[in-house]
């Protein structure tokens, strides 16, 4: 099984001074080749680097981003035609149902849907609407 890590999972295991032990244990229980990032997650981490007003925090976030790029080299899912098609279908479905989710989360979910992967996220309440397979490392399987 391939897990596509949402930004909240990545932040928990890479930049939090005291990460949740259950999330760390979950991530460590899996082989590295089963954990992927979305380009959207890297973009959100980059936005966090740029938004940090404290120089020490900005440096810590920048180092975490560099470490992520190195650690997940070859395991960063890009948004190609298949993922874009899944995103547009998802957007259309959500809109028809009168609901929506933030575009970055919708793109992460669409990437998982297009590839048959499971999204690992704490934000399962709104991601459930996407139809993507989900796991909440803070709680277990959704």
Total number of strands:
6
Q: Could you tell me the strand content as a percent range?
A: 5-15%
What percentage of residues falls in helices of 4 or more residues? 55-70%
Low-confidence runs of at least 5 consecutive residues: none
Q: Specify the structural class.
A: alpha/beta
Shape: globular
Give the ordered list of helices and strands.
EHHEHHEHHEHEE
Q: Please list the strands of the largest sheet in the order they lie side by side.
A: 3-2-1-4-5-6
Give the overall average pLDDT. 94
Give the distance, in angstroms, between the N- and C-terminal Cα atoms.
15 Å
How would a textbook summarize the main sheet?
6 strands, mixed
Number of helices: 7
Query: C-alpha Rg, in Å?
Result: 15 Å
Question: Describe it for me?
Answer:
A six-stranded mixed sheet has the order 3-2-1-4-5-6. Helix 3 (39-51) runs antiparallel to helix 4 and helix 5 (81-96) packs across helix 6. The relative contact order is 0.19. The radius of gyration is 15 Å and the shape is globular. With 142 residues, the chain is α/β, with parallel strands linked by helices. The protein is 56% helix and 13% strand. It contains seven helices and six strands. Strand 4 (118-120), helix 7 (124-127) and strand 5 (133-136) form a beta-alpha-beta unit.
How would you sum up this structure in a few lines?
The protein is an alpha/beta fold and 142 residues long. The protein is 56% helix and 13% strand. The two termini are 15 Å apart.
